[in-house]
Specification:
By secondary structure, the chain is mainly beta. It contains nine helices and 31 strands.
Length: 474
């Protein structure tokens, strides 16, 4: 008999059907409820098997998790106003140009949400409420409320909405980092609309740290929990809970060629949700930290070229000038193997871990450089700031650049995507004039740009001492 093999037998008794199984007894989990059968395995070792009542064994019981968590999962219905245009030349000929004017119509959509605070704060997906002109929330006890959007984060597809209520049921937040492959989980939501509200399905954690194809071109933080719990359209924003009834993820997506569940579902880990939700409730937007690198997963070819002992971690392909990584001394081809002690396996794990920090937070990044392991301390910067907003290092944001006062004029200390980079700005350049007026500190640059009616013209000297001129529209 093969190790781990179990045969299920059904016996019809007076009291109904009882399930029995043949299980292998071990020292760590002895089974003593039935006479033993001794057989020998392939190595000639004696193995003890017993026939037991499966009801007496440690099989998962989801009743507590399901009954407690379902009270905090809500049905979300949204109204979206869509623009469309009728351009048929035949009708325009008869009805005039007014026929071709943009029209609008209302369309209904639905999803799910999870109450995370008793005073009415609900987490859901950004794609559930994006563009909504009206949001209605229905609790499991059929109470209905109008909801307002507190904040949204397309990068993680998380949103917070709020209803005017108190003493609402909530789900305790778990730790998604502690989820194990094969662990049982429940998906709770409203698949396919209001008629299937509060549906509960079960499955296991199939994979962690998953990314999915995205053709939008937008940067997204993806480190999804993959499960085989049945999830369908309408489950978006619903709860993924463990056997303890703790929230471990927010159900977000399926991969399907039919539009319906085909065996795979994905959830945003609750450790990402916690961080994003708190920022949305506190500030209305996410204060996101960035490291400032592009990276690739270590494969055998790279490991052989760099003489690495294994293929774990990610390698740095590029360090952005003036970024947190640059200031910390990270270099191209450094291999990141851990951040604050958490093992790094791929780019998704780096994104997920960095997303747990705020700008200004410090972390220890463990790298392999020239075959030797070392630790590097990094202070994270902000992903994007509003013009005039100060970063943790005291620099001021200005159209994708960060500015600091210099001995003469204002220095560009870092660049990310934005109008300054597109116009040709360089790190280390000194801004001397904005729209013909001299500047001596970053606040001058921001103030004079705000006064511009149409375009912003910047003059100064580049890192090589050459005069530069460029401009861009507001």
């Amino acid at each position: 008999m093969k190790k781990g093999f179990m045969t299920i037998l059904l016996s019809v008794l007076a009291g109904g059907l009882t399930a029995y199984g043949v299980v292998r007894a071990t020292e760590s989990q002895p089974v003593q409820s039935a006479p033993a059968t001794i057989v020998k395995d392939a190595a000639g070792n004696a193995v003890e098997y017993r026939t037991v009542n499966l009801a007496e064994t440690d099989y998962p019981d989801f009743t507590y998790a399901a009954e407690s968590a379902v009270e905090a999962v809500v049905y979300v219905e949204v109204t979206v106003r869509q623009q469309y245009q009728l351009n048929d030349p035949f009708f325009r000929f008869f009805f005039g140009n007014e026929y071709g004017q943009p029209q609008s119509r209302e369309q209904k959509g639905s999803g799910s949400g999870v109450i995370i605070r008793p005073d009415g704060y609900i987490v859901t997906n950004n794609h559930v409420v994006s563009g909504a002109t009206k949001i209605s929330v229905t609790l499991n006890n059929n109470q209905q409320y109008d909801a307002t959007i507190v904040g949204t984060d397309p990068v993680t597809d998380v949103a917070i909405i709020k209803v005017d209520a108190s003493d609402l049921p909530t789900i305790p937040l778990g730790d998604s980092d502690k989820l194990r492959l094969g662990e049982w989980v429940l998906a709770i939501g409203s698949p396919l609309g209001a008629q299937l509200r509060s549906t509960i399905t079960a499955g296991i954690v199939s994979a962690k740290g998953r990314s999915m194809p995205d053709n939008s071109g937008e940067f997204k933080i993806e480190s999804f929990i993959q499960t085989d719990a049945a999830v369908n359209p309408g489950n978006s924003g619903g709860a993924l809970v463990n056997k303890k009834g703790e929230l471990v993820g927010i159900n977000t997506a399926i991969v399907s060629q039919t539009g319906s569940y085909t065996g795979y579902s994905f959830a945003v880990p609750v450790n990402i949700v916690k961080r994003v939700a708190q920022d949305l409730m506190d500030f209305g937007s996410v204060k996101r930290a960035v490291l400032g690198i592009t990276m690739g997963t270590v494969d055998k070819k790279f490991a052989d070229e760099m003489k690495l002992s294994d293929v774990s971690g990610v390698y740095i392909n590029e360090v952005l000038k003036g970024s947190a990584a640059d200031k910390a001394g990270l270099k191209k081809n450094d291999v990141i193997v851990a951040i604050d002690g958490q093992k790094i396996t791929d780019g998704a794990s780096v994104q997920a871990k960095v997303n747990s920090y705020h700008p200004g937070d410090k972390a220890t990044i463990s790298i392999i450089r020239d075959g030797k392991k070392q630790d590097v301390s990094v202070t994270f910067q902000s992903a994007s700031l509003q013009n005039g907003e100060a970063d943790a290092d005291g620099s001021i944001a200005f159209y994708g650049a960060r500015l600091k006062a210099a001995e003469r004029g204002v220095e560009i200390v870092s660049l990310s995507s934005g109008k300054m980079a597109e116009a040709g700005a360089q790190v280390g350049s000194i801004i001397l004039y904005v729209n013909g007026e001299s500047v001596s500190k970053p606040e001058d640059v921001v103030a004079k740009a705000k006064k511009a009616s149409r375009a912003i013209y910047i003059e100064g000297v580049d890192p090589n001492g050459r005069t530069f001129y460029f401009g861009f529209g507001r």
